Amino acid sequence: MDYEFMTAGTPLPPCLPFPEALVKLPVSGTAKIMYCRMLDAMLTRGIEDENGILFVYFPVKQLAAALSRCNMTVKRSLNELENVGLIMRVRQQGFGEPNRIYVLIPKKGIEKA
Hints:
Layout: H1 29-45, E1 47-48, E2 54-57, H2 60-67, H3 71-83, E3 87-90, E4 100-103
Antiparallel strand pairs: 1-2, 2-4, 3-4
């Protein structure tokens, strides 16, 4: 296997943002990676609502495929993130419309049980 050592000028491959506050949160690893994936999606292709606040549409099937997890694991992780206040899901009017997901910014040192 070939190795490449990092220098000051080494370009990094694409990376997901991982807020430091996530490290100690009592959520699963899947929920943490999901949060990072949604945060990245919001920063790169977020949509502004009527108040100028960014949100994303990320259907369960899409999240499951992106994370290589089953739909049930994705639903459980979404609930974890919502319960600790890292996302807010807003249901849309109309049958089959995906939820808006607002990715909330964690406050440094959040301690929730």
